Amino acid sequence: MALIRNATQFSRTATRSLNHWFESPAGQRLRVAERDALAFEFRRLFSPLIVQVGGPDPWIEASPAAHKIWVVADPVNDVQVPQVSGWPAQLPLAGNTADALVLAHALDTTRHPQAVLREAVRVLRPGGTLLVVGFDPTGWIGLTRALGLRGPRALWLRKQRLVDWLTLLDCRVERLSTLGHSPRLSALTHWNLPGGSFYLMRVKKERIVPPSALRQRLRGRLLSLGGARGQVQLGRSVTGHSVSRRSIGALKGRDP
After folding, report:
1. d(CA 110, CA 96)
2. What are the CA-CA distances from residue 34 to residues 5, 54, 157, 242, 251 (Å)?
3. What is the mean pLDDT of residues 35-56?
4. For residue 176, what are the β-bridge partners?
5. Among candidates 104, 100, 133, which has minimal Cα distance to 205?
6. For residue 100, what pLDDT is reported?
7. How many domains is the chain built from?
8. Residue 160's Cα: distance from chain center in Å?
9. What domain range is 249 assigned to?
10. CA-CA distance, 23 to 179, in Å (whole number)?
11. How many CB atoms lie within 10 A of CB 155?
């Protein structure tokens, strides 16, 4: 219980610090770039219910989704999007409900990024889309922070590590974009070249086929191979004899 309280306190402090940085000139430019990048993705999504976790602004306002939920630690005034108080690692939402979910720097403000990913995948329905926005440690903001200069307080996750974690959660990365380059190098954004201040990852939650559906598919395949003569059912024939791999192979090679 103490561990949960400490993690929650760290997330609250880190989120407030990050939101304060977003008020700076560099943070304001980044907010606009991230808002525009997500608005482009929203236009390509069919998502009756979209959820945003974290972020300085309710970017899902630009989504055409009929239902929107913004999960935040501290409620924000003068916002049209419905807000729900919660933490990225303990989302107050049922599983397999959201058609699309946005992690807006939620991985940058937690000590347990794997738990945050598991919660996001749990809430997302099979076939749903996960959009992850985070700071790129190899970008110009990350480099200035590494040199001891002013910059946002963040976890600075490596993108490849994030891809590996998502793969273990039965998710497939569809696209990984590096965006938000320095104003002098803004042309690099169009070519998705390294050096951007943030990344935008589009992820698809794979549809897991239950064992019952697999058995039904196999039963249909065996019946089609056996035809009217075989009358083969899964595991046993109509005569009660076991169906082995050898007998199935014989059915495949038999002339109709």
Report:
1. 23
2. 31, 13, 18, 60, 58
3. 94
4. 201
5. 100
6. 97
7. 2
8. 14
9. 211-253
10. 19
11. 15
Residue 149, classed as helix, strand or coil, is coil
User: b/e per residue, 124-137, with b = 16+ CB within 10 A?
Assistant: bbeebbbbbbbbbb
What are 168-226's pLDDT values in tens digits? 999 999 999 888 766 665 555 555 556 678 899 999 999 875 566 556 666 666 666 66
Looking at the structure, tell me whether residues 168 and 219 fall in a common domain.
Answer: no
212 exposure class (CB count in 10 Å sphere: 0-12, 13-18, 19+) = exposed
Tokens of 49: 């219910």
DSSP letter string over 100-118?
A: EEEEESGGGG-S-HHHHHH
Q: Are residues 196 and 219 in the same domain?
A: no
Tell me, yes or no, whether 10 and 66 share the same domain.
yes
Closest to 22 in 3D by CA, of 70, 71, 63, 59: 59
244 or 11: whose pLDDT is higher?
Answer: 11
How far, in Å, CA of 12 to CA of 206, rounded? 31
* Non-local CB neighbours of 183 within 8 Å, separated by 6+ positions: 29
Same domain, 92 and 140: yes
Q: Which pair of tokens denotes residue 99?
A: 């058609």
Tell me if 52 sits within 8 A of 104, measured CB to CB: yes
Q: Are residues 199 and 226 both part of a single domain?
A: no
